[in-house]
Structure formats: structure tokens, C-alpha cells
Design goal:
- This protein is an alpha/beta fold and about 350 residues long.
- The protein has 14 helices and eleven strands.
- It starts with a helix and ends with a helix.
- The mean pLDDT is about 95.
- The structure holds flavin mononucleotide (FMN).
- The site of flavin mononucleotide (FMN) has 30 residues, from strand 9 and helix 10.
């Protein structure tokens, strides 16, 4: 039932379904989730962005204990260099109030930030990871070369047609087109990207110029949406929020509850949590900082600063101070196992195609 482009993606990446479980750094993409997706024929992905090199190696080995099927590792490219080194006085004041409210004692406005990207690349080479994807920018030519020599296929994220062309010119095997609808951080890496482009106009325009396969991402929650993306020329889809609420996901239960009861106007793009634009459910943290969010420190400094506040909120199950990342179609999330979700999605694609004929 799959398109020629989807079949070709499946054979190139060693999967039987053109469905990628999005990498989701920060806890959701447990080895259990990634291996369950890969075992069921999709491409599971470990979000390595916030992992130490040692934890990444452990996660790869733990995933391999459950499956021999291919999976991918997602890395964060070098962070934004622009923006404030420290939050503005007004932002600091609010963050201090939040910290006090939640009993946080280790709030620091000058946290230590160090890139481990190169060490992550070394782990992926040593562990011979079959697919490596990157977001927030591109790998250096040397890093690409090392990974390719170790046998990895390379994927990068783009949020505009211009960025997708840069990905292609840099020799990547495929590009994720991340629409405006997408949950969590924008993968943009050029200033022109702004808040992003809706997935439909992004696919329509990028598909006319790209020669490498593109993967559609953003607000895709069911088989009908998958079929629509394949019809638009996508070789595969990458779904985050849909896998966030599965049994194997490491997302906090309070976060899962908020996602399944969200309406389509509940998400917002914010810089307040991390200094980088990201989509999540509105809450008190976002509402308070929204009018002054230009005073947030640059990514990843702001992310590190707000970490203890979010951790304390999670412990207290207080969703008003957690980052509730998800896409615009969150309410279509299902509470089931990853394998069952993939089975349902494949059935829905089949029904959608039959209906179209
Ligand atoms: C909780 C969460 C965390 C995410 N973390 C990452 C990440 O670490 N790396 C990445 O490339 N994309 C990440 N994304 C974005 C996804 O790759 C994808 O673009 C997005 O989930 C698509 O929108 P959807 O959530 O509506 O499916 C994340 C998405 C969510 C929801």
C-alpha cells in the first residue's frame, strides 16, 4: 500500500513502516519505547540532546538488549550564539519567585554549559549506530565524515525550504521537514526561519526543489495524516506527540494527562523555558513570562537555569511550572502501547487510501 518513495525509504533505512518515532530529549524516549517501535517495524529514535556521553552509550546498549532492528540517535548541533548571556532583571525576579514557591534552593543564573556534541559523535561511531539525526543545526564536515565512515545514515532537521536545501548540499541522506505545528523545540538554524512554516506549504515548496527524501513532521497523529503526507511526496513521517503518551514513553503521567485533554488552541510557541522557540501547552510559567520573554537568556543557558524549577514542579506534579511540550494536534493522542499505535496507524493508512480510491 505504500508509495514508491516510502518503499524506497524503508529499504534504505532497514524498516518495514515509513514511520519514525521522533527523538524526544529529556526522558520520553526510553530504551523500552525506542526498541518497541523498532521491533514493530518503525524507526525508534533516542533523543540524546541532554544525555551525557556515558548515558548515551548505556541507552544504546539497553536498546540493543531488546532489539536487533535499526534505530536512530538524535544529537543537538551547536546551540544559538545570540541572545542574552543572563536573563533580564525582570525575568530573574519571576524565576526567583517560582523557585521560592516550589522550594528550589539551587537556582543559578550563571549555570555551566558545555557542548558534548563531539563526544556524542564518537559514541555513535564506536557503537556503530545505523542512523544519526541532528537538530538545531548541522554537524561539521569532519563529524559527518566520521559517522559515514562508521556506516551511519545521516538525517538533519529543516524548518524552511532554504534550510532543507542547505541540508541537501551538505550530503545528508534525508531531511526532516518540521512544520510550525510541531511539538517542542524548533529545529531552525537560520535567522530567516522565524517562527517557521506550516507543514503543508513547507512540503509543497520544498518537494519542488529537493532531490533527497524528505520526512514530514508536525501535528501528524493518525493514518489519514500519514497518507496525506505520503501523497504530498514525503518518504516517511516523524511523529513525536503521538508517541509521547504511549505506555513505554518516559513522559511524566501529569504531562500525559494534560496532553490527552488538550484542545487545538492550547499550545503556544515560547522562549521562556529554554531561550529557544518551542511549542507546548500554556500554563502559569509561560503566561507570566510571555510579556517579557525577550529578556530570557539565550539557549541553552535559559534551559539550564529553569531546569531545577521544572524538576521541582514535576516532583510536585504541578503542571503550571513544567514544560508541557506537544504539537497542535495533541488531543488526538492515544493511551496505548507503541506497537499497538503502529498497528492502528498502518490500518488507518490502508483505510484512508481505500477511501481515496
Ligand atoms: C516532547 C518532545 C521532545 C522533542 N525533542 C526533540 C529532540 O530531542 N530532537 C528532535 O530532533 N526533535 C525533537 N522533538 C520534535 C520532533 O522531532 C518532531 O518534530 C515533533 O514532535 C513533531 O510534531 P508532533 O509532536 O506534533 O508530532 C520533540 C518533540 C516533542 C513533542
Amino acid at each position: 500500500m505504500w508509495t514508491t518513495a516510502a518503499r524506497s525509504f524503508c529499504s534504505q533505512f532497514g524498516v518495514s513502516l515509513p514511520i519514525i518515532q521522533a527523538p524526544m530529549a529529556g526522558g520520553p524516549t526510553t530504551p523500552e519505547l525506542v526498541s518497541a517501535v523498532s521491533k514493530a517495524g518503525g524507526l525508534g529514535s533516542i533523543g540524546a540532546g541532554y544525555l551525557s556521553p556515558e548515558s548515551l552509550q548505556e541507552a544504546i546498549r539497553a536498546t540493543r538488549q531488546h532489539t536487533d532492528s535499526p534505530f536512530s540517535i538524535n544529537l543537538f548541533a551547536e546551540p544559538d550564539g545570540s541572545g542574552l548571556a543572563e536573563p533580564s532583571a525582570e525575568v530573574k525576579e519571576h524565576l526567583s519567585e517560582f523557585a521560592k514557591k516550589l522550594g528550589v534552593t539551587d537556582l543559578s543564573f550563571q549555570p555551566e554549559v558545555r557542548s558534548v556534541l563531539d563526544e556524542h559523535v564518537s559514541v555513535c561511531c564506536d557503537e556503530r549506530v545505523p542512523v544519526v539525526s541532528v537538530t538545531f543545526g548541522l554537524l561539521s564536515p569532519d563529524q559527518c565524515q566520521r559517522l559515514k565512515s562508521a556506516g551511519a545514515k545521516l538525517i538533519a532537521t529543516a524548518t524552511t525550504t532554504g534550510e532543507a536545501c542547505i541540508v541537501e548540499q551538505n550530503g545528508y541522506d534525508a531531511v526532516v521537514l518540521q512544520g510550525f505545528e510541531a511539538g517542542a523545540h524548533r529545529g531552525s538554524f537560520t535567522p530567516e526561519a522565524g517562527q517557521g512554516v506550516g507543514l503543508l506549504p513547507l512540503m509543497s515548496q520544498a518537494s519542488r526543489v529537493l532531490r533527497i527524501p524528505f520526512i514530514a513532521s508536525g501535528g501528524i497523529m493518525d493514518g489519514q495524516a500519514i497518507a496525506a503526507c505520503l501523497l504530498m511526496g514525503a518518504s516517511a513521517v516523524q511523529m513525536g506527540t503521538a508517541f509521547l503518551t504511549t505506555d513505554e514513553s518516559g513522559a511524566d503521567l501529569a504531562w500525559k494527562d494534560r496532553i490527552v485533554s488538550a484542545s487545538d488552541s492550547d499550545t503556544v510557541l515560547t522562549r521562556a523555558f529554554s531561550g529557544k522557540l518551542a511549542r507546548g501547552l500554556r500554563n502559569e510559567f509561560i503566561n507570566t513570562l510571555e510579556p517579557i520573554e525577550n529578556g530570557a537568556a539565550r539557549y541553552p543557558v535559559q534551559n539550564q537555569i529553569t531546569n531545577p524549577i521544572r524538576a521541582a514542579a514535576k516532583k510536585a506534579r504541578n503542571t503550571e511550572f513544567m514544560s508541557l511540550w506537544c504539537g497542535q494536534a495533541a488531543r488526538l493522542s492515544r493511551r496505548t502501547s507503541a506497537a499497538d499505535l503502529l498497528r492502528q496507524l498502518a490500518d488507518e493508512v490502508s483505510a484512508a487510501i481505500t477511501g481515496f480510491r
